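(Structure overview)
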Amino acid sequence: MAVVGEESRLLTGVSDLAARHDASLPSAPDASGRAELARLGQLSGSAFDQAYERCLHTSERAALRSFAAAADSAQQTSAIRAFASAQLSRLQARLAQARSATIPR
């Protein structure tokens, strides 16, 4: 449950930041995300577990790259850079946790 709380706080923070900067957030997965969900939906058992684990690792790495880029970007506002910077250690910990939580084969 701790992960759900962390993700909820992160989403709230991103939503608040977007609202303050008059930016909109996607309300649904993009075409790539929909395709991945459809692919996962066709799997079961250990095949699903392995594909989900790969998806989780890929997602965590992408989030970390995006937040690191925003934290270092001179093109972002100071509020965005500060928010992104504040999330980096949490995202690094989540990636480490995802790497160590290998699903048994």
Notes: The chain has a mean pLDDT of 87. Residues 44-105 form one domain. The longest helix spans residues 45-72.
